């Protein structure tokens, strides 16, 4: 079967391509739900999530080898040599041009490569995985690129929480697994944050873990429609409380404006505190109370009490803003 072929679906506008680069286990599924909510659409579950408006492409499908093959090469899935960037770039370009592709499938359950699947053009593509910003050709097709940046202390805490509970691992095993991946992560994944348009960065709170300091790092002059704060905001009523502030910085050679949330909101007073936050944001460009309502709708989702949920929801609304601008909506 051909890797690229004419589409049966015709669009009025070129698809909007959003790249999301992140390590595994960083909460991309919750972020996707926020994006779907902002766009007012949904997707059907399956290996590739597809809906009437949005398709999610997992770039793990472009692994060259299956699990046994990587064991033979001794290379991890993070290694650029284990990923077919030529095919990835060509197919993302074809989708951007309104063509259809037969995309490969990497089956995470079996560790094998399954037969390719037909992907037709859609209004929005979220291209997510380890390397959406790594290759220049694939990166050049993106209308907006996001890097989820989790410092090692937070990544270790999260993986311990997940792997000890779900996999029966010990903390020592979790730490060993992170250390084993670290050289390839540093070489092939982490450098992408220099080229991303917007970075969502997780650090330990000034009050220590498990509380978080979450930063929305917005490159100046880029395609991400920037938000700012009217003033620094202090939220109290529960421990540890939360602080929102804004400042400028140099991000890996690029000027950027950062909106930061440290700590947690009072979940018993969630709606009121979210109203205060929303009223303090400049440039949100949403419906009245849209941010509050989106957060309340996913109140039980991971990170809803801290900057994770808040800034993911902001990014989701901004993706819609980019879509509206590019399609003339």
Could you please describe the fold and organization of this structure?
The structure is a single chain. The chain has 329 residues and is of the alpha/beta class. The protein folds into two domains: 1-147, P-loop containing nucleotide triphosphate hydrolases (Rossmann fold, 3-Layer(aba) Sandwich); 197-329, no CATH class. The protein is built from nine helices and 14 strands. The protein has a nine-stranded mixed beta sheet with strand order 3-6-2-7-8-9-13-12-11. It has a three-stranded antiparallel beta sheet with strand order 1-4-5. Strand 8 (198-204) and strand 9 (212-219) form a beta hairpin. Helix 7 (270-279) packs antiparallel against helix 8 (290-297). The longest helix has 21 residues, at 307-327. The radius of gyration is 20 Å and the shape is globular. The protein starts with a strand and ends with a helix. The mean pLDDT is 94.
Quick description:
With 329 residues, the protein is α/β, with parallel strands linked by helices. The protein has helices spanning 28-39, 67-73, 85-96, 136-140, 152-167, 171-189, 270-279, 290-297, 307-327, and strands at residues 4-5, 16-21, 54-58, 100-106, 113-119, 124-129, 144-150, 198-204, 212-219, 228-229, 233-235, 242-251, 254-263, 281-282. 33% of the residues lie in helices and 25% in strands.
Q: Give the C-alpha Rg.
A: 20 Å
Main sheet: which strands, in order across?
3-6-2-7-8-9-13-12-11
Going by CATH, the architecture of the largest domain would be: 3-Layer(aba) Sandwich
CATH class category name of the largest domain: Alpha Beta
Q: Tell how many strands the DSSP assignment holds.
A: 14
Q: SSE order in H/E notation?
A: EEHEHHEEEHEHHEEEEEEHEHH
User: Helicity range of the residues?
Assistant: 25-40%
Protein name: Phosphoribulokinase
Pathway: Carbohydrate biosynthesis; Calvin cycle
Catalytic activity: D-ribulose 5-phosphate + ATP = D-ribulose 1,5-bisphosphate + ADP + H(+)
GO molecular function, one term: ATP binding
